[in-house]
Design goal:
By secondary structure, the chain is an alpha+beta fold. It folds into three domains: about 80 residues, conserved putative lor/sdh protein from methanococcus maripaludis s2 fold; about 90 residues, Beta Barrel (Elongation Factor Tu (Ef-tu), domain 3); about 100 residues, Methane Monooxygenase Hydroxylase, Chain G, domain 1, CATH 1.20.58. The protein contains five helices and 21 strands.
Length: about 375
């Protein structure tokens, strides 16, 4: 019985130890980790233990004074300044169609050609008739000269001279009619060839080889992209502040960050009575045809006189909800300063607050900065 009791006690003690370890595992791990961390700290060299966090690399710019005019940015759509629905001056069967949608063609290039075989036959006939009539006219003029000479010597009657003169006049009139007929046929033949009225892109096809085209029937749509118009709707309160020919800044979302300069080309006199906005056209040179019709554009319009203000690059401003900050670098440390934002000009923005010209502000790397964080200025 005593042996059995000892064995039972041994088993119970083992079970107790296992349950104790399982219940206190998190505490044991915590105590163990604390001991290990103290041992690691004890082995860190004193020079490394005293160093702070590494300096964050940043780019900076100086707060400067510059002239900025109040501006408003409006969204518009690019459209070709010149578009055309090219039509046929004459009816006929399409014998040749030389272009496809998207092609760039120069002014005068052949777009399509209609069959002109019958006109060519008529031209040959009219040309032959003219040549025959001109030969008759030469003979009639010779007869008239002889009659004139004989009439002067009174060897023929006046009637002969009068008849010869009438013949010459009749043939001259016939030659003129044939010349007009030939010119008309040649013009009709020329109309059978449809040419590009200007240099530009083919944006739509309306016919193909073998189709019949009526007089005035469409052949292609063309667009000249060398000059673009951006159509914007301007609220009525800004209309009195705009000047025809005034410069504007234009950004195209698809071509960001490239910037373009535009000019106010037209202010439409009748606006939308519901929105109280007036259409305004801004002309933009597009020599490389990079801006396409239909692209989204952002137009900056000056709506007041410029004044000298403190400005920073837009990248220097950090937005914290409703608050705006800039990080100023002083003795290698970044400190945040609250600022109020004003007017903008391209990449610069007016700032107001406890700032002065010449201060260095962080323009890159400021998103993760904390007050008092060491920084390293990079180029």
């Amino acid at each position: 019985m005593a042996g059995w009791t000892a064995a039972t006690l041994g088993v119970n003690l083992g079970v107790f130890m296992i349950e104790f370890i399982l219940r206190n595992t998190p505490r044991i791990i915590f105590v163990f980790s604390v001991v290990i961390s103290h041992l690691v700290v004890l082995h860190i060299p004193p020079s490394q233990a005293q160093e702070g966090p590494p300096a964050t690399p940043v780019k900076v710019a100086q707060i400067s004074k510059m002239d900025i005019a109040p501006q408003v940015q409006l969204i518009g759509t690019a459209q070709p300044k010149l578009t055309s629905l090219v039509a046929s001056d004459i009816e006929g069967l399409v014998e040749k169609f030389s272009v496809s949608e998207g092609d760039f063609v120069k002014k005068g290039a052949v777009l399509a050609r209609l069959r002109d075989r019958l006109l060519q036959i008529n031209l040959k006939g009219a040309t032959a008739n003219k040549a025959d009539t001109e030969a008759q006219l030469r003979r009639a003029r010779a007869d008239l000269k002889r009659s004139s000479d004989l009439l002067a010597s009174e060897t023929i009657a006046d009637k002969k001279y009068t008849d010869d003169l009438a013949e010459v006049q009749s043939l001259e009139a016939r030659v003129r009619r044939l010349e007009a007929e030939i010119e008309h046929i040649q013009d009709s033949i020329a109309q059978k060839t449809i040419r590009a009225p200007f240099s530009g892109f083919v944006t739509k096809e309306y016919t193909q080889v073998g189709e019949w085209v009526e007089k005035g029937g469409p052949i292609v749509n063309m667009a000249d992209l060398s000059s673009i118009e951006v159509l914007i709707d301007v609220p009525e309160r800004y209309i009195p502040l705009l000047v025809l020919g005034g410069d504007t800044g234009v950004k195209v979302d698809a071509l960001n960050p490239e910037k373009f300069t535009g000019k106010i080309a037209a202010i439409i006199a009748v606006g939308d009575s519901a929105s109280r906005a007036f259409p305004v056209k801004v002309s933009v040179d597009n020599p490389n045809n990079r801006i396409k019709g239909g692209m989204l554009c952002r137009v900056s319009l000056a709506i007041g006189k410029s004044s000298s203000v403190l400005a920073v690059p837009k990248d220097a401003v950090v937005n914290m909800g409703q608050q705006h900050l800039v990080f100023v670098v002083r003795e290698g440390v970044a400190q945040p300063l609250a600022v109020q934002l004003g007017d903008t000009s391209e990449s610069m923005i007016e700032v107001k607050g406890q700032i002065t010209a010449g201060m260095q502000v962080v323009t890159r790397g400021n998103e993760r900065l904390r007050p008092g964080q060491p920084v390293k200025i990079i180029e």
